[in-house]
């Protein structure tokens, strides 16, 4: 049964829009939590600093804008997927269009998400150095192209070894082993991420001020501990970026009114890394959802189209001649 390119493309757009909508809902209900935490970390790291410029768009506007962008992105991915599926349609063996669509979608997910994403994982907003965005994007896209080529060559190798009579476990070990070796080599050749993740810290930005009515006994203990441990959280009131020279302090009460920095890293360093980890895994899950929905809906649309165009033969009960 021949399927026109127009049918592929129109159904790809529809499948992509549905996939984008599902991904948008996933972002709103799941990933948005980690984005909010990342923004909170950024706000904490600037406690005590002069107020910065207000955001151009409110947080709610950004959230709905992100959902709209996900739908547009899903539609575009669906269109590209339809073109790719049309090109390789005759090369994929399957019992139905659904089977072909799911296989191509799984291969696309591995090539465009898993391979580049494990080498250059995504970061939530406010995390990382914004000056390295172009460099990270370049290497990510280049690795995506390499991933597409690797997956295509793996499919071709699978077909070649099958034609030579290799099936079952030997075929899986041979092709799978070649894929792992090639992927490992690609990952080694590509440079590491130019933007290591470091938790935000505001040691140089005093966020607190020692109260004027702080008890003397407490301040004496604070001064004693700071001298013993070399703690530099008490800052110079003339230059808060520099620690206070404790040798110039005679007694604890002299610390009243002094600026004091706090360290978000020292308070709970694990919380920040956990937030980044959750954002990355949820991003992978969202993209996996996108590809699953696109592959599923595309296959269903094509199968329904074929079933609709296939003539139905009606069986009639035979009657005796002359009746």
Key traits:
single chain, 8 helices, mainly alpha, two-stranded antiparallel ribbon, 323 residues, two-stranded antiparallel sheet
What does this entry look like structurally?
With 323 residues, the chain is mainly alpha-helical. It folds into three domains: 1-128 and 269-310, no CATH class; 129-196; 208-262, no CATH class. The chain is 64% helix and 3% strand. The strands form two sheets. It has a two-stranded antiparallel sheet with strand order 1-4. A two-stranded antiparallel ribbon has the order 2-3. Strand 2 and strand 3 form a beta hairpin. Helix 1 packs antiparallel against helix 2 (59-88), helix 1 runs antiparallel to helix 8 and helix 3 (97-119) runs antiparallel to helix 8. The protein starts with a helix and ends in a 14-residue tail after the last helix. The model is unreliable at 46-51 and 318-323 (pLDDT under 50).
Percentage of residues assigned to helices: 55-70%
Can you tell me the overall shape? Answer: elongated
The overall pLDDT, averaged over residues, is 82
Structural class: mainly alpha
Write the layout of secondary structure elements.
Elements: H1 5-45, H2 59-88, H3 97-119, H4 133-163, H5 168-189, E1 208-209, H6 216-229, E2 235-236, E3 239-243, E4 259-260, H7 264-267, H8 269-309
Antiparallel strand pairs: 1-4, 2-3
Helix pairs in contact: 1-2, 1-8, 3-4, 3-8, 4-5
